[in-house]
Amino acid sequence: MLLPIRFFCADRISGRLRFPHERRQEKIYYITADSYAAAKSSPHLELLRKKGIEVLLLSDRIDEWMMNYLTEFDGKPFQSVSKVDESLEKLADEVDESAKEAEKALTPFIDRVKALLGERVKDVRLTHRLTDTPAIVSTDADEMSTQMAKLFAAAGQKVPEVKYIFELNPDHVLVKRAADTEDEAKFSEWVELLLDQALLAERGTLEDPNLFIRRMNQLLVS
Fold first, then answer.
1. Which of 2, 149, 162, 165 is spaced 20 to 30 A from 143 at the CA atom?
2. Each residue of 65-91: pLDDT tens digit?
3. Residue 155: enclosing H or E segment and its boundaries?
4. What are the boundaries of each domain within the chain?
C-alpha cells in the first residue's frame, strides 16, 4: 500500500509497516517526487507494490531536504526507493537456476551497453525490482538524488552532475529485443531509447525530447 504522508500519525505509520505474514519491515521506504501522481506511478515502486509493502509518498518540494536530516524513526531507518539498496533487491523472489543461467547469457549484452554509454552512467546492471518497466535509473546512497538536484537548480545554485546507475529488467521483452539485436546502429537506438525512458520517468524531462520522439518513431516503424 502507498501512503501519502499528509497528516499521518507517525506511530500509526510505524505500526502499519509490516511485510505479508506479519514479518516486520526492517526499513521505512519512501519516495520523493514533484507530485503525488508522479510518486504513486513511479516504476521504483513496482516490486514493493507487488509485495504489498507500504511506502511513504512525499511530494512537497521541501521533503527531499527534510529526509536528509530525518534518517530514522522508532529505530527503523528511512530508505529512498530511488537509491540502490541491498534490501530492495532482497525483496525480489529467489531466482531459479534456469533464470540465473539466462542472466549469465546477458553478460555480453551488459558489457555492450556499458561500452556504448561509457561515462554517461555510473554503472549498468540487471535488476529484479521491476515487473512492468524495462529499465530505471537509480543513484548510489552517497550520490545526489534527482529531487535534491532540482532543489539546487530552483535556488539558482550550481547543480553537480548526477551519475545514474542504469538498471535493466532481464524479463522485459524490450530488453530481450535489444539484447538480440546484432546490428550496432539499431542496438544503439534501442539502448538510447531505454535510457531515455528511464530518465524521463525519473526526472520528468529530457535534454532533447525531439530526438527521443524521432528515435522512438524509427523503432516503431522498423
1. 2
2. 888 888 888 888 999 999 988 888 777
3. none
4. 2-81, 97-221
177: number of Cβ within 10 Å = 14
Model confidence, pTM: 0.85
Query: Would you say 119 and 68 are in contact if contact means Cβ atoms under 8 Å apart?
Result: no
Which residue bears the cell 552512467? Answer: 121
Q: Which residue has the cell 512492468?
A: 132
- Cβ burial of 176 (10 Å; 0-12, 13-18, 19+) is middle
Q: Mean pLDDT of all residues in the chain?
A: 85
Q: Which fold has domain 2-81?
A: Rossmann fold (3.40.50)
Who has greater pLDDT, 71 or 199?
A: 199
Overall fold of domain 97-221: Four Helix Bundle (Hemerythrin (Met), subunit A) (1.20.120)
